[in-house]
Design a protein that fits this description.
By secondary structure, the chain is an all-beta fold. It is 0% helix and 37% strand.
């Protein structure tokens, strides 16, 4: 999982239970753990492991996620790229449950920012951005295709200062959404596997 702007903010391999940034920008941020985050086999062709953020097929279960409290380096307000390998699992109890891949956003106190997620209703990859923290000044770029469940998929969201777009397995998917208003500099934590509350927790990673 990586969050990049012009200064290469953070990169996390999430392998072997090590949650430390190794992106080379000198930030060295270690993620804190919320819940019993497990380890599963990594994506195809790799010998690494990956963070398991499953919510036990029940959104009332305690959320599992990795997070870093807000700080200046994580407050990306302009062009950025956020990307990672995701293994989405189907939920029999909540088949339309969405999967938050990464976020820096909260609904409370107008602290919305950005959210990269798999929409549980249509299975599409989406990047949501708010420029002022409210739910009014927002844009969402959506893929045309879907993020398949039960396999590793590379998911990427890009904002270049002019357009917002998403990529699935390295290929742009869907129509870019025009946006020049930037991203809210908010006080929310940067989270992998959770947005706002348990009802938006990732199911499978």
């Amino acid at each position: 999982m990586a969050l990049f702007d012009a200064n290469n903010v953070v990169r996390y391999k999430l392998s072997g239970g090590v949650w430390t940034d190794d992106g080379g920008a000198g930030n060295g941020y270690t993620l804190s753990v919320n819940g019993a985050v497990g380890q599963i086999a990594g994506h195809s062709g790799e010998s690494n492991t990956a963070a398991e953020l499953v919510v036990n097929d029940d959104i009332s279960d305690a959320p599992k996620n990795l997070y870093r409290a807000d700080n200046a380096s994580l407050s990306v307000t302009g062009a950025m790229t956020i990307a990672g390998w995701v293994y989405a699992k189907a939920s029999t109890t909540y088949p339309t449950q969405g999967s938050c891949i990464a976020s820096k956003s909260m609904n409370t106190s107008n602290q919305r920012g950005f959210i990269l997620y798999r929409d549980g209703t249509d299975g599409k990859l989406k990047l949501y951005i708010s420029s002022d923290g409210t739910s009014t000044s927002v844009v969402t770029a959506s893929s045309t295709g879907t993020v398949a469940q039960g396999q590793w998929v590379h998911c990427c969201g890009v904002y270049d200062g002019t357009d917002v777009r998403v990529y699935i397995n390295g290929t742009q998917d869907g129509t870019p959404a025009a946006w020049t208003a930037g991203i809210k500099d908010n006080t929310a934590a940067f989270r992998i596997g959770l947005y706002n509350s348990v009802d938006a927790a990732v199911y499978g990673y």
